[in-house]
Amino acid sequence: MNAETEVALDTLHQAILDHIAAAYPALATVSDYPEERRHLPLPACLVELAEMDGVPDLDPGTGQLAVMTRWEARLIIGWRTASAAREIRRLAGALGVTIHQQRWGLPVGPAEVLGMTPDAFEPQLDQFVVWRVDWQQVVHLGESVWTPDGSLVPSEILYSTAPEIGPVHEEAYAPIDEVAP
Question: What is the pTM of this model?
Fold first, then answer.
């Protein structure tokens, strides 16, 4: 297991934006959380971290919090774009392929695309054609207890055999170098 799974959310946001901008140089805007959405240079891709849910079953064993992050990328083109209906669907499909299994060069779980759908939720985007690409991926938040200086690496490895295992059978454990051949 890789104990070096720490990643800051700001770093992850920027890696996603950089990857999308590099993959789609024709996008005039690749941003997250813009305050002004009515006068965006088009075409545009707006990325947002929509939610984070704890995932106890995916505890990395590093003292970090495993969360399932859910992301939304809104693709926006002008409604007067030639063949706008086809173009936005083509762009959404292509972005879905780009996001699929993506780790953004960081120690995060692979992206799982959940869907690509029209997005009419935001009234300020009514004059545009908007589709949303949704994905999720596991991220470990916080610092790992397994520090690079080895401060929490065990100095002695002990073993025992079932059923004499666990804290109540501490006296049954022996150093690993005492294993019979």
Answer: 0.79
d(CA 26, CA 43): 8
The amino acid at residue 21 is A
Is 124 part of any domain?
yes
Domain that holds residue 107: 9-141
If one counts the domains in the chain, the total is 1
**C-alpha–C-alpha distance, residues 34 and 122, integer Å:** 13
Count of C-beta atoms within a 10 Å radius of residue 46: 22
The series of mean pLDDT values per 10 residues for the chain, 181 residues long, is 78 98 97 84 96 90 91 93 93 98 97 95 76 97 74 72 89 76 51
Q: Which CATH number belongs to the domain containing residue 70 in this structure?
A: 3.30.2000.10
